[in-house]
Amino acid sequence: MQKPDRPQEQTPVRGRGTGWAIVHRYARQSGESFDDGWGSIDQLAEEEHLPRETQIIEERVKSVLSSNDSPDIGFDLSVNPYRGCEHGCIYCFARPTHSYLNLSPGLDFETKIIAKVNAAERLREAFASRAYEPSMINIGAATDAYQPIERKLGITRSIIELMHECRHPFSMVTKSSGIERDLDLVAPMAKQRLVAIYVSITSLDPKLARILEPRAAAPHRRLRVVETLAKAGVPVGVSVSPVIPFINEPELERILEAAAEAGAQSAFSIVLRLPWEVNPLFQQWLEQHFPERAARVMARIREMRGGKDYDANFATRMNGTGVWAQLLRQRFDKACARLGLNKTRIELDLSLFRKPVVSRAGMPASSKHAPPDDRQRELF
Description:
The chain is of the alpha/beta class and about 375 residues long. It has one domain (about 40-340): Alpha-Beta Horseshoe (pyruvate-formate lyase- activating enzyme), CATH 3.80.30. Helices cover about 35% and strands about 10% of the residues. It is built from 13 helices and 10 strands. A 7-stranded mixed sheet has the order 2-3-6-7-8-9-10. Residues about 45 and about 365-380 have low confidence and may be disordered. Pfam families: Radical_SAM (PF04055). Keywords: Iron, Iron-sulfur, Metal-binding.
């Protein structure tokens, strides 16, 4: 009996965004379950209801900087300390990247996490190169940089340590409270216009957040992160993304109001994107949790995508097209204007960059910052 590659009509796996190990588009083989007369199908169904433990796969990478040539994204380079994301957000546009590893964009994406244990070392080498010129870097563009395993491995912290040492600016979008652990590095960088943090808040409803983003920080905890960063003098914004019609879309103004009250000074918003395997995964989730409005949600999404489930056009993929997309943009802009958000643009300073010291072995000559203690790790 082979494990099925199609969704099963059953309750979701506890603590996961999806229980479907969807076959990715590069797979050469797929399977389908069949009844062998020994109750195997029932046993398989029971097993798929059980919580799946997270597997951490340590990897030593050859390079860590990824360039961006998309005109609708506001950074030039990105560094991803991890691949995959344990938060399990069903809508995550990065799920299809697990296909490159011959892993499922479904359950594997949130249960098989690749940890790039030498990421800071490779980044140091890149910064030390004669050819390197400072560019806008985003940490964690395709995964949240504060995975639960970060408490133990400290890969993200080692990258921020290097940024601090070299005075290299960076931005980050996160759903985790883990950024609070690294305020000793981030706050001094903020005074030099070297950092901007955006906290992703998709809903204020804890029940919705629990099924939409099952292992991310609770909404009230993310608002506290905004407040903590703002009080520490760190430029902090909010990402109300993705906006899903009739699911979290009614909360748009309330989320912006709560973020502004907590201290956010900027905001951005992106409508739901359904590239590749994200499309069937999201539609199955929709049928499981909101069957009474699933058809209505998808009809509105297609209305904003020119009749398609997804349109990858750079000019429209973030905002969509049509009357409804325009209405969403007007609501967002008017709410931001009323709340005083986006009054000034956060400009980071590239001119302070200095190349790092590298020993003959390619490792840092010294490290100024000690790893976080156990008390700090409890902030996650």
